[in-house]
Structure formats: C-alpha cells, structure tokens
Design a protein that fits this description.
4 helices; disordered C terminus; 2 domains; alpha/beta; about 160 residues; Spore Coat Polysaccharide Biosynthesis Protein SpsA, Chain A; about 15% strand
Length: about 160
C-alpha cells in the first residue's frame, strides 16, 4: 500500500500499547481518529497488540479498514509487558513527533497541540498527566544544550 504521507512521513505518530483492550480501545480510537483528521496534519496511530487473548487485534484491523494507511497494527508473539509494548509501538512509529498514550487516553487527545507546541519550542520531552494540575507539559526535561535535568515545571512555560 502506498503511504498517504508521501516521502515526508507523518507529522505525529500516536503510539499505543494494548493488552486485552478490545472493550476500552474502540471508544478511544473513535475519539482520537476524527480529532486527528480535523487537525489536518499527517498522522498515524500505531497500536501494539501485546499478546492479547481477546479481540484487540481484530478491533485494530477494523479501524485500519476505516482509516487506511493511518492506523497500523504491530503484534508481540506473547505478552511482554507494558514497557516492551511501548517500545515496540514507538519504534514502529514514523512520525516527526511521537505521542505515547494508554489505550484509554487518560490524558485527552485534545491536549496534543499543547504537547506539540512544547516540542516545537525545542523541548525534548513533553508529558501530559491526568494527575498533575500542571498537565500537559509538566516534566523533568532533559536540556539538549547542557545535557542537564531540571526538576520544576510550569504549564505556561515548561522548564528546559
């Protein structure tokens, strides 16, 4: 299948790892995919099925049919754990920027513009948190120029 992105690739990849998420994943994708379409930038959603024993892979394939070239499925041979699943989904991503999310999008996809804005200003990492009042751009971030870490964050101006 020819890529819908041309040679440039997607602007953003949304990487999701899922283990037995056949029930939780559809509402999340029903919300995220139309939102990403409306944003207008090239995107992809990469779902790693981490050895699910339910119909998670079939759910993803349904969305692949509805959003050809925009949704991709990678699969583990067995359950390897969340860390390995995240790694697999992120490594399969082709976007200039990669957003990782749990299958339930506990940090709403609508926060994506704020996260991307921080990255486009030169920050290496932007983290959204459903638990932090400073979400979505609060994180101890690694500074590219000094290699040091900062420990304070602000929603209005993430620390470098």
């Amino acid at each position: 299948m020819e890529s819908p992105f041309g040679e440039a690739g997607p602007h953003v990849s949304v990487a999701i790892t899922a283990w037995n998420e056949a029930v939780r994943l559809p509402p999340s994708l029903e919300r995220a995919l139309p939102y990403l379409e409306r944003c207008g930038d090239p995107y992809e959603v990469v779902v790693n099925d981490d050895g699910s024993t339910d119909t998670t892979a079939e759910v993803v394939r349904e969305f692949m049919g509805r959003y050809p070239g925009r949704v991709r499925l990678v699969q583990s041979t067995g359950n390897q754990g969340k860390g390995a699943g995240i790694r697999r989904a992120v490594l399969a991503s082709r976007g200039q920027y990669v957003l990782f999310s749990d299958a339930d999008f506990s940090t709403p996809i609508e926060e994506l513009p704020q996260l991307l804005a921080a990255l486009e200003r030169g920050y290496d990492v932007a983290i959204g948190s459903a638990f932090s009042p400073m979400a979505p751009t609060c994180a101890p971030c690694r500074n590219r120029s000094t290699g040091g870490y900062s420990g304070r964050c602000s929603t209005a101006s993430p620390t470098r």
